[in-house]
Amino acid sequence: MRKNNLLRVASAVFKICNFVLLFAAVALTIIFIHLQIDREFYADWYINKPVANETITLKKAYGEVEDDPAKLYVKNWNKASLYFTYFKFMGVIGITFFAVSEFLKVIHSVRVRKTFGRQNVVSFRRIGIYSIVLSFLSGVSDWDFGNHHVSSVHLDFTYLIIALLAFIFAEIFKEGNQLMEENKLTV
Predict the structure, then answer these.
(1) Helix, strand, or coil here: 146?
(2) Other CB atoms closer than 10 Å to residue 11's CB: what's the count?
(3) pLDDT tens digits, residue range 27-40?
(4) From CA 118, how far away is CA 135, in angstroms rounded?
(5) Is residue 169 a contact partner of residue 103, using CB atoms and an 8 Å limit?
(6) Pairing state of beta strands 149-153 and 140-144?
(7) Through-space distance between the first and last CA atoms of the chain, rounded to whole angstroms
(8) Nearest to residue 171, comparing CAs of 122, 135, 131?
């Protein structure tokens, strides 16, 4: 089973995902620190007014910058909201990194023929817990730009479905582990 190409490709893809997550965390931290030092550097950067549960896009205005009421400029971002958003995104990145790392452990154990080991049960349970945390963490937002404030709380059911599947897989692997242990004792 060491020659399984699908597992090798999946492992490579998840390793690349973890590298991208680490890169995103470093880049986000550098931008966050630079924003604290030189807020005027971001005078041309803006987002459109966010609505609850909407994805935002950071844009740069070119040419002469006019104060458009439909745009929220990054230089006006409330410090508490900025910190909240930074820690939220870092939390999402960190928890996603840990979940992907647990899945890499499962792939590795399958590749070395330890599919129904106790560690896979633990890994799937951790993935389930990480998914529940991601559901709550990704569902909270707070955007405060002085004259415009939007806060929202919702549950992301995609992560909850992933958590449910992870817990189901944990139980399946637990049953497989018990059958494997019983089989060892009967030999």
Answers:
(1) coil
(2) 17
(3) 999 999 999 998 88
(4) 26
(5) no
(6) antiparallel
(7) 24
(8) 122
pLDDT at position 187 is 56
Q: How far apart are CA 45 and CA 26, in angstroms?
A: 20
57: closest CA among 45, 39, 65, 40? Answer: 45
User: What are the backbone angles phi and psi of residue 152, rounded to the nearest 5°?
Assistant: -150, 155
Q: How many whole angstroms separate alpha carbon 127 and alpha carbon 163?
A: 7
The pair of structure tokens assigned to 16 is 């690349």
What's the whole-model pTM score? 0.85
Distance separating alpha carbons of residues 82 and 146, to the nearest angstrom: 12
What pLDDT, in 10s, does the model give residues 128-147?
999 999 999 988 888 888 77
- The alpha carbon of 184 is separated from its chain's Cα centroid by a whole number of angstroms, namely 39
- Determine the pLDDT at residue 1: 44
CA-to-CA distance for 89 and 70, rounded, in angstroms?
A: 24
**What are the backbone dihedrals phi and psi of residue 70, each rounded to the nearest 5 degrees, phi first?**
-85, -10
Structure tokens at 38: 């030189």
Q: Are the CB atoms for 141 and 52 separated by under 8 Å? A: yes
